[in-house]
Amino acid sequence: MMFVDYATARSHIAAGTLKALGVAALTPRPELPGVPPVAAVPGLAGFEAWPWQGFVVPAKTPDAVIVKLRDTYVAAVADPVVRQKVIDAGAELLDHVAVDAHGAGGDQRLRLAA
Residue 52, exposed/middle/buried by CB under 10 A (0-12, 13-18, 19+)? Predict the structure, then answer.
């Protein structure tokens, strides 16, 4: 048993070579009908885990460059064609943009440490 993101596993699930036992979201996912959330298991209420990606830049990158990268990303994922391509790839876009990676994922790290 392992956790893997849906974008990676979906072709294997569709081919029948991998069976989804649960989703790590708090609610069932429409792309996996009949697969319950792990949070539905007694003793695991509130369980949730999400893969995330981000951009990194060298420490001394000028703020103007960072803002330009962020604004370009925000504009791209706001484009309905781009959004649909991401969804079609099996990923989900969250409407969250972190400026400082030190804060990104911090709440999840704290929950995992508990």
Answer: exposed
